[in-house]
Structure formats: C-alpha cells, structure tokens
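Anyone else keep sequences and structure tokens together like this?

Example one:
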Amino acid sequence: MKALLERYSVKKYKDKNIDKSLIDEMIKIVNSSPTSINGHHFSALFIDNKNIKKELSKIGNFGSHVDQAPLFVVFNLDLNAIKETLKITNQKIDEKIVDYVIITSIVDATISATMLQDYCLLNDLGTCFIGSVRHNVSKVREILNYPSNVFPIVGLTIGYSDQEKTIKPKLNKVMFNQYDKNHFTNIIKDYDNELKEFYIKKGKQPIGHIDWISNAYKNDSKFIQDIEVDQMTKMLSKYFFKKYLNDENK
C-alpha cells in the first residue's frame, strides 16, 4: 500500500538493467490484465533497444528519461486480434459499434498499463507515464514500424530511480453514490493553494493548478502545438474503421 500511495514520476534513472526474470513477470502481468469480453483489444510493445529509445526521446515532449530508462513500454489501441479472430468465421466488426470498440480498446490498454505500473512499484522500480506517444503519432508509428491500424495510447518508462522522491499533492476526484456537480467548484482553489505551497517548500516557482492548466490549454502552448490533431482525428474516427479495420493492413 505504501509503495502505491508514494508513487511519483521518475524522470531520471540509474544505468542499471532490469533482471530478465522481472521482465518475464511484467509480460505475464500485461497478458493477464482484464479485457472486455476477453477480447484482447490492445497490444503492448516492450522496447529495450537503446537506438530506438534514443530516437523516441528526440520527439517533442518525450524527454531524456525515455532514453535513460532501461525499458519503455507502449500500450496501443490495436484491434488486430479481434480482426484476425473474426476472419476465421468470415465476419467483420459492425460499423455501428466502432466508437464503442475503440473506447473499449483504450480502456483495456490503460488498465493493463496501470497494472504494470503497480507491479513495478511493488518491485522497487520507478515509472513514468508518457502521454507524448499520442502527440507525435506519425513519427512514433514510423520509428516503431506500426501498421496503419495501430495507435499508441500511452507509454511507460521503467527502471531504477536516480532522483529524490517527490510526492506531489493530488486533487480529490472521488464522490459517493451520486454525482456532485459542485464537487470540483468547491475544491479547485484549495488545491491550487496546496500545490503552490508544495512548490514553495521545494524551493521552486510556486505555480498553482489554475495557472498550470490554463497555460497548458492555451492555443499557442507547447502542449497543444505538439499534438498532431489531424493524425488523431484520422485514426480515432469512422474513417479509421472504414479504411483500415476491415481491410488488410496498409
């Protein structure tokens, strides 16, 4: 429990390889994670090749920790297992449910990524989720040799931490029984102050939650500019379904 509650994003790793027995167990964790209707709507790519990690680290917001970490795992929206299974009975996924199936794939991939993170924490390994795999989709897919119908959802760096443990305060997102429309209105400003105090104690610029999110979502922010919106829209739409899902990989 302590390891999970004290989770923090590790962005600096020791030059130390992960034992093969641990990686073998990680693979079992990913493959045993729950999937809707036991459909296996996702895939995971384990990357320990230094050259590939180095190439990825040069993209947009990836950061040097992708290169430093001995292992980088990318979880993908991938319906090829469903597609190949249905081919045996000459079936295709009904276009009416494509949005549901895509959401299901994203959920399955995220559940598996979280299970892998938790396993790592319980085995003294540091991690950091990398959402930037969704920002520069075309470059990521090129480097990782993805077919047209596979879309990266989230990455996870894994290794032995070489930085001070820094547990950032988090916003309370839990409600009970019925949704409270005023929940976030009532707590955002208090959380903003809590985060500022946290950074002050760390001797850093006291940026609160409100300024941080406001700056991130400005149209000219680096966060927004790095997102290949056209690529995401193309992949996560019915165009994705019509052009790629029921056809052979391009």
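And example two:
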Amino acid sequence: MSGTEDERDSGGADGGTDEPGTADRPAGAAADAAADAVGEAPGGAADPAAGDLSAEDRAVLAFAARGRPSSGEKERAVREQLGMSPVRYYQYLNALLDDPRAARHAPVTVNRLRRLRQAARDRTH
C-alpha cells in the first residue's frame, strides 16, 4: 500500500476525493461502508429514514457525486470501491436517476446527472 493513513483520509496522495479510510478495503466494501455510516447491517437492508434506498443504492449515489479527473481513474475506482464493472455501474446509476427515492436522497446529484444524461441524448438525436 502506498501512502499513509493521513494521505488516505485527506483524499490520497494523488489528491483524489476517495471516501476517507476506504483505500485499503476490499472491492465491494463501499456498500458495507455506507451501511456502517447509517447504522445499518451490511447486505443492503433498507433504512426507512433514507427513503427505502439500499446501502448499495446510497453507495452508488455517493460515488457518482464525487468527481474523477479521468475516465480511467473512475473505472478503476468503480471496480475497487463498488465491486462492479463500469458497465454495470452506469446501468445501475441510470436506473437510480429515474427513481424518485434517489431524487429525495440526493437531489443535487440526481438532478445534475439527469441534466447531463438529457444533454447527451439531445446531442445524439
């Protein structure tokens, strides 16, 4: 592992915006980390206070809210932090953007991503 605990907590040695303390977690641990943050058992049981979104839903939305400097870095981070392929991540995120519970949970992120999605659709039609 390169970097110290302090570097991971401040976003890493490269200045990234990774979630604090997750650099040494195994792939797929982001959902468990989100579950820990809300006091939920790992495995995705819905939390009524979060509008019935699963821990994985919340982890994907939190990941989408953070920017990445390059697509290659983002793809690597998707695999390491969410434990899914980039294609699956985008399919999952696209479905979340149409879910009103996601909009209630993270309205700024969801609305921003909806605008980007619509702009991309408008360019191709």
